[in-house]
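tool=predict chain=A
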Amino acid sequence: MKFDWYKKISSFGVELEKAEQSLSENRKLAGFVALIMLVFMMLAGLAAFFIAVKSPEKVMVPDVVGKELTGALQEMQVKELYPKIRLRYSKSPEDKGTVLEQSPAGGTIVKAGRRINLTVSQGVILDRVEDYTGMKIDDLRIQLQTLFAASSVQMIKVPDLPIYKQDESEAGTILEQNPPANTNLTSPITLQLVVSSGPGRREIPIPNLKGLSLNDILLQISKSSLIFDFTAQLPQEGQAAGTVISQKWPEGKTSTSAYSRIEVVIALPDKIHNNLIYGLIDERLPPYPIPLEAELKAEPVQGNPYRIAAFKHTGNRLTIPYAVPRKTRLILTVAGKEIKRFIAE
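tool=predict ok
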């Protein structure tokens, strides 16, 4: 039956077997071409992807240190670099708005789009001298240190040794200054100051310390404008630890000039007594033209730090007794400067 059908078709000039064979070969070719096209499309896609994620162009960082910020930003923009700005005080008013530092440095090769750190001057904290007369010289030191704490340069400094003269003003009061108030600051200066050394001789009552306990002695030290030179002695029979055995002053006198020295002998045990370490700080200091604030602090192993005594001192020999728990750290300062630090053992 099939043979007859093929014969009928062939009689019309169509050879189906050849057509079927040709169609089979064309199907294989079409599949092969489709496979090639798929591979080509994949390669083209990969090429497009790598082109899209290609690394940014490398550029040289311009050197903008010392240039105005506006010009520096324009140079960064041309190189397709992005600045990150940090403001800082500088030592000259003329630096305001200029680039002080940069990172990475000029000449460094980086990728375009890199962030460049620029430190820009916002000028000086203070552009003119103020009026300091009437202030205490110690207060002025603290004020200037605080004011210029964030600056790389302290534009105004206080002399270590100002000129002192007697005056009715309290000791340490600034009487005169140079440069005068409202002088423009163009560079760092050290003030020239005339400071009061006090009104001269002033009579101070002499307290009787004999028999007082250590706490009462420390209270007297803090309240009095006298200087007590202590000498330690081991307690004898009937003498309590930390009490004053004797003191010396001119016979018949009940008062003396401010910051005169009074010799005092105190009983201090050389071993732990009542769980306390007793001792005597004995320091040699330079002479001071005016009395300076001195302070003895304690930092116990347990508990909060506390002040043992605060007083004014004119320098030379400084003595102060103490009684603290073992391992307590003791810190002696004069005019805010640490003089001695040790552990009581």
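DSSP finds five helices and 21 strands in the chain. The chain has a mean pLDDT of 85.
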